[in-house]
Amino acid sequence: MLGLGAIVVGLLAVVTGRWPRWVRGRKGGAAALAAAFVLTLAGGATAAPAGESDLARPAEGASATAEPAPTQTRTTPSPTPSPAPTPIPTPSPSPTAEPAAPDAAVGTALAAVGDLEVKGRAPKTGYDRDLFAYRQYDQDRNGCDIRNDILRRDLTGISIQPGTNGCVVQTGTLDDPYSGTAIAFTRGTGTSNAVQIDHVVALSDAWQKGAQSWDAATMREFGNDPLNLLAVDGGLNAQKGDGDTATWLPPSGAFRCAYVARQVAVKSEYDLWVTGAERDAMVRVLSACPEELLPERTNVPLMPGAERASAPAAPAPAPSPAPVPAPAPAPAPAPAPAGGATDPRFGTCKEAKSNGFGPYVSGVDPEYGWYRDGDSDGIVCER
Fold first, then answer.
1. Where are stretches of biased composition, namely Low complexity (predicted)?
2. In Å, how far are 8, 20, 41, 44, 336 from 30, measured between CA atoms?
3. Degrees to nearest 5, angle at CA 232 with 228 and 238
4. Is 142 exposed, middle or buried (0-12, 13-18, 19+ CB in 10 A)?
5. How far is the C-alpha of 123 from the C-alpha of 204, rounded, in Å?
6. Which of 125, 145, 278, 382 could be stapled to 274 by a disulfide with Cβ–Cβ 3.0 to 4.6 Å?
7. What is the pLDDT of residues 299-345, one digit of tens each?
8. What whole-number distance in Å separates Cα of residue 10 and Cα of residue 29?
9. What 3-state class would DSSP assign to 306?
10. Cβ atoms within 10 Å, residue 207
11. b/e burial code for range 58-82 (CB count within 10 A of at least 16 → b)
12. Are strands 155-160 and 169-175 parallel, antiparallel or unpaired?
């Protein structure tokens, strides 16, 4: 404040030219004014900053050597970090997830697919086709092998080899389900393979999907079961090999639903499992025909009436008529025994025998002449 007062006095003296007594001349006023500025600046430098003077002033009664109270420092709280959002894991897609399919009615092949167990394919170790006794077992006990049973079921216009009790198919026509074409069949060394019998669920496929644990009787039944057998084009049967639904389907698209339905029926019947890819393929095919039913097992009876007649033999020349022999002269009646001791005479041998008489021998018994010797053996009224 002293500095400010000196400035005012100095300015007044400089402007008016009137000086207080303790100032002499304008130079003295200028010097006073300069001194006033110095005092003002010095006072501003030593003044306590506003707001902090109470904290810097020592408490009343305190010793001059007491340390000043510590300056209070305002701390700004650190913001609480927001928790990082927890990432939601994306589930890995299952490689065998079942494709979407329409609701399937009970009894349909599509519904039955859902009941099949899904597992991986087992090793083929130990597989032998002969374990299934194909054509070595008469499944329906009709005395005929299963190949000919299936040919009689699946072929049309058939003829049966004579002397086989209606069993062996000699000729016929196959409406091949795999290719959709007609194949003429003739039994023979170079022709029979045109039509082959296919195991719809291949024996090797069954072995790798549950059949390894079967007993011999079950393997034999499976190998000769009409439910699992179809007469088909021989070349396509070889092409299929042991493929399942995921690896092979018939070229004829019109038959694929029935083909897959039969595979499902067989695997359901024998508790065979399927792979994930196989199950998915079954669903894809059957979703196009959700009303396709499971097929039933059918057996075909023997057909003796379809035996092909042998080529007619040349007619034998008519034999010359045998000469008619002259009738033998009637034997002379035996002389009546003395005393007339003969049996009573009856109208027929039947009456004579019913009354306990006969037989009579020619040339011995006079009664012989009374009756007819039908077999000309010289004896009548034999008992």
1. 68-77
2. 12, 13, 17, 21, 217
3. 90
4. middle
5. 10
6. 278
7. 888 888 777 654 444 455 555 666 656 665 554 444 444 444 678 88
8. 5
9. helix
10. 24
11. eeeeeeeeeeeeeeeeeeeeeeeee
12. antiparallel
The two tokens of residue 145 are 């092998």
CB 293 within 8 A of CB 124: no
Residue 132, classed as helix, strand or coil, is helix
Distance CA 24, CA 179 (A): 139
Q: What is the pLDDT of residues 40-80, one digit of tens each?
A: 555 444 444 443 333 333 333 333 344 444 444 444 445 55
Tokens of 243: 């493929």
The lowest-confidence range among 95-104, 151-160, 228-237, 347-356 is 95-104
| Distance between CA atoms of residues 217 and 288, nearest Å | 37
Residue with more model confidence, 283 or 316: 283
Question: According to the model, what pLDDT value does residue 27 have?
Answer: 55
Looking at the DSSP assignment, which residues form a beta bridge with residue 361? 379
Mean pLDDT, residues 250-262? 98
3-state secondary structure of 202: coil
C-beta of residue 273 within 8 angstroms of C-beta of residue 116: yes
